[in-house]
Amino acid sequence: MMEDTATRAQASWFQATARQRIDGLLDPGSFTEFLGPAERVQSPHLALFDLPAAFDDGVVIGRGTLDGKGVLLAAQEGQFMGGTFGEVSGAKIVGLLRAARDAAGGGNGKDDLPRAVLLLLDSGGVRLQEANAGELAVAEVMRAVVEARSNGVAVVALVGGKSGAFGGAGLTAATCSRIVVSEEGRIGVSGPEVIETNKGVEEFDAANKALVWSVVGGKNRRLIGGADAFAADTMSGFREAAIAVLGKVPPFDLKTLKAEQARLAGRHSKLGGCDDAVGMWKVLGIKNPPAVRDMDEDAFTGIADRLKEANHDAR
Amino acid sequence: METLKIKHTAKSRLAGKKDQAIIGVVASGNLEVLLERVLPDTRCEVDIATTAEGFDDTWKAVVADFVERRSPGGLRISINDGGARPDTVYLRLMQGAALMEAE
What is the pLDDT of residue A3? Predict the structure, then answer.
């Protein structure tokens, strides 16, 4: 029944469940779950819609170690209701972040908690059935990320699941200290179908998968500075990338925020006129931009790590 | 939504020391199975919440097969089902029993 360790390290992050990702990411046997499934802290709303609940409401939270160092972690289950933020699933993430904030701030005496939080995002955003409770949950998560960071906690988003990081999850990623993405990981706010519905097919053709993936996919996010590290779509890929970025998290201060503002303004003036991702890659000075789409990880990382826009101290 | 409770007398206690395990995800055609070692050694109870209504006989047959094959005495098994097929249900039950036997 047990696969060998090497096989498991090469398993796809995209295909895995939230619990499989935790097993593949952290040091073996180090994970302790908070509010586990047997506690049955689940959504009180879904039954009203005749929908099945999940025992963990689609979010797994807890602590463990990564390369020997303590981390707190929240993992969204993208296969359950699109990994959405509901009242309970959101509150679990908020509680974890506030515990990290308080521990780092020396507030409540639980200062044995790690000063790093990993958010394994895999979510389309707010759970529509929970409407305002879900919207509030996203707002509280973003506030909690910022408060944790301002108390010296590193908050790192890992994006590579089937639901990507859209809506509130995309916004949450943008508040983190660092973002790791795989080619399969997609980051955005409004999804392609939403943009097409509201602005027309001329604005964004959601049926054009090559266009959609090249714009919202991990490669483009990495090249235009929307993600700080590119991971192979494997457990070991995300593990190595998470270890690397945790070692160089920028401080959360006015200097970093001003650098972020300047970075985004500069990016908008430089790339705002482009029609698609290949156009942006050309402006960024990449030779033979269309080839980026089919490039393997090593070749891609070689280009991304040398690009000015993709490597910055902002965030 | 439909809920079912199925009770069995098992031949023996399921081997292993783990006191709980979870396997699977609530999604279309899939299910999650939570196993807890909380009952007397020869009892097994299965609580099911499912979106697919009217399949009581199928659930009873799958659970009876599982109990016969694995003798999961001592387990309370709770299922959230997103309309999984009987073979998927059986697979998850067998995976869950294997997890409980670990260590």
Answer: 59
- Asked if residue A166 is part of any domain, the answer here is yes
Q: Which domain holds residue A160?
A: 5-187+226-251
| The CATH number of domain B2-101 is 3.30.230 | yes
Residue A111's pLDDT band (boundaries 50, 70, 90)?
low
Whether B38 contacts chain A with CB within 8 A: no
Chain A residue whose CA is closest to B99: A1
In a domain, A203, yes or no: no
Q: Which residue of A has its CA nearest to B19?
A: A38
| ipTM score for this prediction | 0.95
For B23, residues 6+ apart whose C-beta sits below 8 A from its C-beta are B32, B33, B92, B95, B96, B99
CATH number for the domain that contains residue A129: 3.90.226.10
Distance from CA of B100 to the nearest CA of A (A): 12
Give per-residue pLDDT as tens, B3-46. 999 999 999 999 999 999 999 999 999 999 999 999 999 999 99
Judge: B26–A80 Cβ closer than 8 Å, yes or no: yes
Residue A267, domain member (yes or no): no
For A129-284, strand residue ranges (E) read: 154-159, 178-182, 229-231
Residues A95, A112: Cα–Cα separation, whole Å: 16
